[in-house]
Amino acid sequence: MVKIMTQLMTEDGIRCDGRRLDELRNISIKVGVLKNADGSAYIEFGKNKILAGVFGPRDVHPKHMANPDSGILRCRYHMSPFSVTERKNPAPSRREIEISKVIKEALQPAVILKDYPRTVIDVFIEVLQADGGSRCAALDAAAVALADAGIPMRDLVSACAAGKVADRIVLDVNNEEDQEGQADMPVALMPNMGNITLLQLDGILKPEEFKTCMQTALVGCKRVYEVQRKALMEKYFQNGEQ
């Protein structure tokens, strides 16, 4: 265990990818990348490369699934066979089904579905390359794609993970830290409203570590929000209009 921890972090607090404890990986978001989608976004979050497309509101099929009082939000998170080192089976895995459900439940509080009764909004997420923290990156792209589609939202949803590596709390866990670290905590936040829509924990944290990890993740979410906001502004206010 000592050997693994030494590989993950130096005594000076430099992580295996050269980042410091509170440093995010590079993030870039491009809006409106799919011609046939109502809204779309492409995100590179570290080495994660993820595409999100939104279709709808549109009629529900089969009709008996329609809700007369509200729209329905559906999400599908899928990892391409070539997204990981060893070729993945293209069929949906239990993990992908679970993450699809998690992303839907994290987005749902932000989307004003009552404005679209008897309709469905579909969010399709395709992971082209995975590098740890893909559920947070996918959630960030999906939220931007929903905004791009013109879906009324109470707020954007911004997600980022924190974790425990080599007995220290770190921001934005990468793949090596996710695999060999001590804890991973994905968090999603509606930044302007202050509502947390996702909180998961894989690993064990002491109570004080939990509080520190949570605050670290929330700081990361707010930084991600600025990137999301800037990406949307660049598409819709290219001429500097307010």
From TrEMBL:
Reply yes or no: does the keyword Cytoplasm apply.
yes
Q: Which residues form the Exoribonuclease phosphorolytic domain?
A: 23-152, 155-218
Q: Which Gene Ontology terms cover its molecular function?
A: 3'-5'-RNA exonuclease activity; RNA binding
Enzyme class, top EC level, equals: hydrolase
InterPro entries recorded for this chain? ExoRNase_PH_dom1, ExoRNase_PH_dom2, ExoRNase_PH_dom2_sf, PNPase/RNase_PH_dom_sf, Ribosomal_Su5_D2-typ_SF, RNase_PH, Rrp41
Keywords, A to Z, come to: Cytoplasm, Exonuclease, Exosome, Hydrolase, Nuclease
- Name where it's found: Cytoplasm
Q: By what name is this protein known?
A: Exosome complex component Rrp41
Q: Which organism is it from?
A: Candidatus Nitrosotalea okcheonensis
User: Mind giving the lineage of the organism this protein is from?
Assistant: Archaea, Nitrososphaerota, Nitrososphaeria, Nitrosotaleales, Nitrosotaleaceae
